[in-house]
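User: Second chain of the day. Same drill as before.
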Amino acid sequence: MPLALSRRRFITFAAAAAGLPLLFTAGRAQAGLVRWRGTALGAPAEIQLYHRDETVAQQAISAALAELRRLEKVFSLFRADSAISQLNREGRLDEAPADLVVMLERALNLAKLSDGVYDPTVQPLWNLYYEHFAATAADPAGPPASARAAALALVDWRQVEVDRNTLRIAFARPGMGLTLNSGAQGYITDKVTDVLRAHGFERMLVDMGEPRALSAKPDGTAWRIGIANPADRQETVASFDVVDKCIATSGGYGTILDEAGSFTHIFNTRDGSTAPAMSSVSVIAKTGVAADGLATAMLMVPTHRREAVLRAGGGEKAIFVTPQGVVATVNA
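Assistant: Same format as last time:
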């Protein structure tokens, strides 16, 4: 069976099981670090914030986790009862959650900006590859060309109909499917951040799959986020001081579909092939939703289009990494 890894991860944060208790460290007269660790959309997640009163912090984090649970019922492909799973089963969704409409419109706009290199309708390709390699004695060369062509025929962002007035979403062709994993984690990071800010918190780091730093730490220092070596995620190849920004990373190593590591979860929408396992792109942006989708898009965008797509998508910097280190940096 293929090895499935966490879809994207910074070495700054260790993987943690869902439901770990809050960790609180504080002196009597100073704000202490309050940390929660768990999962969001199947990936490790973490909240770090500062407060003198642990009870106040717990109440705020409880509200944030309620927002996380609400949004997982919208975006999670792991849940059969989520809005996106219902859309994929039925091919249409009337009175869709407003969050799904907003996130989908963002994804379709990014697809347009990237000339379809980024396409949220790649779910048929994911299903094809996953089912192929999950089968006994799967052909290591991957799915046959005919099956790949049939799946590719269902991948086209322009065939998604969205009516923001009626909140109706529909696919133009039977068999199409949607994934917003490249974007939803950043969106959830932003929404959870909004909840914590509404509870009076400003100095925090929220990571629902993509870490976003708000303000500096109490001592005035920035949050430091490391980017991992795709071949060894215990090794940092670059690090950045971050204040009021998000860094999102995407790489083929996030989910490897076959034992040899030849096929990954990031698809080339031109021919149905997949991105290399040992390359990643990290994008710095003001918000999680901007950084998240762009991180996946930039993996496949042609070199001559990188700067234009990064700028149009709201990104500030893209860092391209291989096991040899940072191989390219693009500024918007």
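The mean pLDDT is 88.

User: Great, on to the next one.
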